[in-house]
Amino acid sequence: MAEQSELVNKPAPRLPGPKNRTILIGRTGTGKTVAGLWHLSNQDLERPWVILNFKNDEHIDSIENTTDVDYDFVPKKKDRGLYILRPLPGDMEGSPSLIETYLWKIWGREKCGIFCDETFMVGRNNKAFNACLTQGRSKEIPMIMCTQRPSYISLFCFSEASFIQVFDLNDFRDIDTVEGFVPIDWDKETPLKDHQSWYFEVARNLLYRFQPVPNMNEIRKVFASKLHRKWVRI
Predict the structure, then answer these.
(1) How far is 104 from 75, CA to CA, in rounded Å?
(2) Contact 75/112 with Cβ under 8 angstroms?
(3) What pLDDT band is residue 5 in, cutting at 50, 70 and 90?
(4) Beta pairing, strands 163-166 & 197-201
(5) Going by DSSP bridges, is the β-strand pair 206-210/197-201 parallel, antiparallel, or unpaired?
(6) Nearest CA-CA partner of 232 in 79, 111, 43
(7) Is the pLDDT of residue 65 over 80?
(8) Which long-range contacts (CB under 8 A, 24 or more apart) does 221-225 make?
(9) What architecture does CATH give domain 4-12+21-227?
(10) To the nearest 10°, the Cα dihedral for 145, 88, 93, 141?
(11) Nearest C-alpha neighbor of 214 from the set 58, 64, 1, 12
């Protein structure tokens, strides 16, 4: 996915693994959710993943053989595949909120991925979400987080990330937040084209310019090859 000219002088980029935290950032319409789902499709879905679908995203809903769940659901030992939780705005209220209480269950369960479609909805001070971020590697809780407002989310999303993918941004506060963690010189670099992104590998300190990821039709095919009807809870 990286531009070919970059690979002459750099090793091929790595994709997130089963213990990594990945954050994708970009204004509305830049393709971050599709890119997040592409990363998810490349994961081992023999492990359960809970998708926090705050806005009933059409791309998430187009994936077949998923299961809608509520706050009582915690994946059992033999559960696998994708489970979609649809939080309502009021679910983030209170201390602890419904979403924080639920994330503590995932933290306690371990070995379960979290995909968050709009991370700022979780709340900057959500203790359970931050615990999943800071202890995710040892507890085997991979995380894929998408957001359009990086200045509104917990800084642990950046400090604990193994991979940071940045699409176009137009708010100086968001750009300032990203520049604190990703070595992008916005003033000198050629502007990103539609659905292009910067992809930063934290461990190797390598920055790539990514071409657009495959479209949702191709991503759905990958999901279809990995997700099985027998995994769906009726």
Answers:
(1) 13
(2) yes
(3) low
(4) antiparallel
(5) antiparallel
(6) 79
(7) yes
(8) 222/41, 222/42, 223/41, 223/45, 223/63, 223/64, 223/65, 223/82, 224/64, 224/65
(9) 3-Layer(aba) Sandwich (3.40)
(10) -30
(11) 1
- Residues 113-130 have pLDDT tens digits of 999 998 999 988 999 999
Average pLDDT, rounded, for the chain: 92
Give the H or E element holding residue 6. helix 4-7
d(CA 82, CA 30): 24
User: Which residues is 116 bridged to in the sheet?
Assistant: 52, 145
Amino acid, single-letter form, for residue 200: F
> Using one digit for the tens of pLDDT, what is the confidence trace for 143-196?
999 999 888 899 999 999 999 999 999 888 888 888 899 998 887 778 899 999
Crossing angle of helices 98-109 and 127-139, in 10° steps, is 10
The average pLDDT across 23-46 equals: 95
Phi-psi region of 107 (alpha: psi -120 to 50; beta: other; left: phi over 0): alpha
